[in-house]
Design a protein that fits this description.
This protein has helices at residues 76-99, 112-134, 136-159, 165-171; strands spanning 7-13, 16-31, 37-53, 56-66. The chain is an alpha+beta fold and 182 residues long. Strand 1 (7-13) and strand 2 (16-31) form a beta hairpin.
């Protein structure tokens, strides 16, 4: 059995000190439901973060599995901070909709379009609720344009390319913050 040495990279992300470690090309053996034996190569990455909050030293640990090899220079930081964390946020939002007041559950239907529309409307309602809870500016916009007008304004803002791409990419270099100005 060969000994595998993990790779390591230290990175500063916002107010957090991160230590990434990863191992590429790990054999993962499993059996399919048919009984056939399969082997995949997987790539595992972990991250330990340190930061200070409220005068106390904080620490968090993360781990992910990737289907693509990881490298210190090209992708480990971006993949973990921008892709893997984003995936976790998506799953957390669905859990919020299911268990924290929205009573979101599977609606059994034979109409696939109706089920997709219900799913989209639930996410849209949650989005509007979160924005309304976190910004006074949105309430001013709703008073000015009405609810339908505000939804149209938000849709056009997100789909028409009005945002400056370089400004947006610069904001992606650190931890996410919810700020809105109208």
């Amino acid at each position: 059995m060969r000994k595998i040495e993990p790779n390591e990279r230290r990175h500063r992300w916002g107010n957090r000190e991160q230590i990434f470690w990863w191992i590429n090309q790990i054999d993962y053996d499993f059996r399919e439901a048919s009984g056939a034996h399969r082997r995949l190569k997987v790539h595992v990455v972990g991250c330990t973060e340190f930061w200070e909050e409220g005068g106390k030293q904080q620490e968090a640990h993360w781990a992910w599995v990737s289907g693509q090899p990881l490298t210190a220079q090209k992708n480990v930081v971006n993949r973990c901070n921008r892709a893997a964390r984003h995936r976790w946020d998506i799953e957390e939002q669905i859990l919020t909709e299911k268990h924290r007041g929205y009573e979101y559950e599977h609606l059994y239907s034979t109409d696939w379009t109706a089920m997709r529309n219900w799913h989209v409307l639930m996410h849209l309602g949650h989005l509007v609720n979160v924005m309304a809870l976190h910004t006074e500016g949105l309430m001013k916009k709703v008073r000015e344009l009405g609810f339908s007008g505000t939804l149209k304004f938000l849709y056009e803002s997100w789909t028409q390319g009005w945002m400056d791409r370089d400004w947006l990419l610069a904001r992606c270099q650190g931890p996410p913050r919810l700020t809105m100005a109208f």
